[in-house]
Specification:
- It is a single chain.
- This protein has 202 residues and is α+β, with helices and mostly antiparallel strands.
- The chain has two domains: 2-93, Immunoglobulin-like (Sandwich), CATH 2.60.40.10; 138-198, no CATH class.
- Helices cover 26% and strands 27% of the residues.
- A seven-stranded mixed sheet has the order 1-7-6-3-4-5-2, with no helix packed on it.
- The chain starts with a strand and ends with a helix.
Length: 202
């Protein structure tokens, strides 16, 4: 017995031994009867095998049900001979399907959605990063003692924080403050830089 899925195309292959006649002299089909009508599917004949393609049965027979059994046979013929080298029963199978339907009237219970809590680590990956709170470190304020040991790099960093980000302008201000300083120490240069930055722009 053969089994055919009612929704799928099926290729049947037969091993054959042909004697006394050429393959090109023969033609044939796989035939079966359903609802008092006979149907045939043409075959391709080679020296050692015969193949045929059975189309999805649900397209040919919309009323065919799961478990339907019918007789099938392979018919071959030439101009003078007729052969039926194979016949068997075929059982139709339909894939198992489950259909769920919401019971109750429209005014009944509403469909609910359940939610589960995910771990904090996963939330951190998907949510926006927390805002950083910057606290003023009072101990980091520049005292007069610290200013006496200020470096050239710190002077340039001060100018950038004060809003002068252009490197060329920073260099001009530094050189001007250096020229106006009565001594060559960085503290005096720094005070002149502060005065230059506080001058109103023309």
């Amino acid at each position: 017995m053969l089994y055919l899925d009612i929704n799928e195309e099926k290729t049947l292959t037969f091993e054959v031994e042909i004697n006394g006649v050429g393959c090109d002299e023969m033609c044939g089909s796989v035939r079966f009867q359903y609802e008092d009508m006979e149907y045939g599917f043409p075959v391709v004949i080679d020296e050692s095998k015969i193949t045929t393609v059975i189309k999805p049965l649900n397209k040919l027979f919309p009323t065919m049900k799961n478990g339907t059994v019918f007789e099938a046979r392979l018919d071959l013929s030439t101009e003078t001979y007729y052969f039926s080298p194979w016949q068997d029963e075929i059982t139709v199978q339909a894939p198992v399907s489950v259909e769920a339907k919401l019971s109750g009237s429209p005014g009944g219970k509403k469909v609910g959605v359940k939610a589960t809590v995910i771990s904090e680590e996963k939330v951190t990956k998907t949510s926006s990063p927390p805002k950083k709170v910057i606290k003023e470190d009072k101990s980091d304020k520049w005292s007069k003692e610290k200013l006496k040991n200020i470096t050239t790099q710190q002077i340039f960093e001060f100018m950038e924080r004060a809003g002068t980000k252009n490197k060329k302008i920073q260099k001009v201000i530094f050189e001007s403050a250096q020229a106006n300083a009565k001594s060559a120490d960085n503290y005096t240069i720094f005070t002149n830089v502060v005065k230059a930055l506080k001058k109103p722009k023309k």
